[in-house]
Amino acid sequence: MPHTLVSQLHFARFEFQRCLDGLSAEDAIRRLEPANSISWIVGHLANQEQGYWLLLAQGKTLVPRLHDLVGTGKPASTPPLAEMWDAWQTITRSADDFLLGLTEERLFEHFERDGSPVQENIATLLLRNTYHYWFHTGEAHALRQVLGHRGLPQFVGRFGEYTYTKSNS
Questions:
Q1: What is the pLDDT of residues 88-145, one digit of tens each?
Q2: Does domain 4-150 have CATH number 1.20.120.450?
Q3: Which of 90, 91, 135, 157 is at a distance of 20 to 30 A from 64, taking alpha carbons?
Q4: How far apart are CA 20 and CA 2, in angstroms?
């Protein structure tokens, strides 16, 4: 059973996908400035997961150009939604290879970058990643409302599947 923090990241991912269900490729690349496009958001979250759970944790990069396209501080872009979902799915599947093996003890370890420990431990990076999903899920939901989309989720769903219990902490 995954650690509770990993389960919460999985829940945030699920809700992110649920928020974007039914989004058209055309609406995904629309920019309502100053916000980025929703397709950018998908790639941006994939980029964070790639940086933490693939590059730092496993020493690999599966989508090399992603950071230049959707990284923090990079110019705004409107990448194709299908391409960003493909990158997201590839990266999150590989990230889970690492995340599903985390133990309570490992959460307090620090990755290394360029021979020095990263300031935040693995648990803090998990929290940062999870909260980053919630931030952008809200942003994407608001963008969809402005775009006139109807029938969007109104509240966090399927929470019961991610109930906090002692057995998965």
A1: 999 999 999 999 999 999 999 999 999 999 999 999 999 999 999 999 999 999 999 9
A2: yes
A3: 135
A4: 25
